[in-house]
Specification:
Blueprint: E1 8-10, E2 21-28, E3 31-35, H1 44-49, E4 58-63, E5 66-72, E6 83-87, H2 97-114, E7 126-128, E8 135-137, E9 143-144, E10 149-158, E11 161-167, E12 178-181, H3 188-200, E13 203-215, E14 220-231, E15 241-247, H4 262-269
Parallel strand pairs: 2-5, 10-14
Antiparallel strand pairs: 1-4, 2-3, 3-6, 4-5, 7-8, 8-9, 10-11, 10-12, 11-15, 13-14
The structure holds zinc ion.
């Protein structure tokens, strides 16, 4: 699945060494600039041609000898010859998972920077702070950090069956585990119980942590669990869930997103007949 490469070291300032190679992520909204044929990121020549200098970039980190950084482009920027703008989702099968993870991290920082040029409290200009990934208001000292939205994901099990659901807003016919955003004042466990009941009308217990994943669409932290069915009949929330069904041994497994997301890992690890012991 998409996750930060083990050899990635986060940085808040550029590395001291000038010999370092540079990996430039250039975002325009939720699309980034990528070479049309070899899918490489723009080199320093392209960066210079777009009028970008060091101060336009946010350092992200280092990957062995490569310095990884991101900048936001004006919405009117045209792709230079040989390059195109692409959404991350469109590259799920074309780019390697470590690069997708870095692109997701880059997007979250770029989007935070793009949307925090002015203070949300007093509208004065914001300044980047040193030693921290934050903006500080020049007038009232209000601080703004990259936005991260925790969300729960849960695969409900009932005996040897698992509950898969299709969201009304999701990709056509693709099933997943249940998921939902944490509300203010709520624990992740409370969120699991509330969302399961709201979305499909079931009660669960025995929550077991599975893992987590930064999901940059646009700024979620997915925290995944399994849970055991306790009571209730499936009743889908009409405004959220198009269909939910138990999938047991011998049942056809509907299409689900594999390879990139923790939902795929969670489902694969718990497919009927493959329940972890
Ligand atoms: Zn302010």
């Amino acid at each position: 699945m998409i996750q930060t490469p083990d050899n990635f070291i986060p940085l808040l300032t550029p590395p001291a060494s000038k010999q370092t190679k540079v990996l430039n992520f250039l975002f325009k909204g939720d699309e980034f600039l990528i070479h049309e044929t070899d899918l490489s990121m723009p080199d320093q020549t392209v960066v210079a041609s777009l009028g970008l200098a060091g101060e336009h970039f946010h350092p992200l980190g280092s990957l062995d000898q490569t310095y990884v950084r991101v900048a936001s482009l004006d919405s009117r920027t045209q792709a230079p010859a040989g390059y195109r703008f692409s959404k991350m989702r469109a590259l799920f099968t074309a780019l390697d998972l470590p690069t997708l993870a870095l692109a997701g991290r880059a997007f979250q920082v770029a989007e935070w920077a793009r949307t925090h040029q002015y203070c949300g409290a007093c509208a004065a200009p914001m300044n980047r702070t040193l030693g921290d990934r934050s903006y500080r208001c020049s007038q009232c000292s209000f601080m703004a950090y990259p936005r991260i939205s925790p969300a729960m994901m849960v695969l409900v099990r009932k005996g040897a069956s698992i509950l898969l659901a299709r969201n009304i807003a999701g990709m056509a016919q693709r099933f997943s585990a249940l998921a939902g955003f944490v509300e203010a004042g709520e624990s992740i466990e409370e969120c699991v119980h509330r969302e399961v009941f709201e979305e499909v009308g079931l009660r669960v217990n025995r929550l077991q942590y599975f893992g987590s994943q930064a999901w940059a669409f646009p700024h979620s932290l997915m925290i995944a669990f399994t849970a055991e069915y306790v009571s209730g009949e499936i009743h889908c929330a009409a405004d959220e869930i198009a269909e939910a069904r138990w999938v047991g041994p011998g049942d056809p497994v509907p299409e689900f997103l594999r390879g990139v997301s923790i939902s795929g890992e969670l489902i694969s690890a718990n497919l009927p007949g493959n329940v972890a012991t």
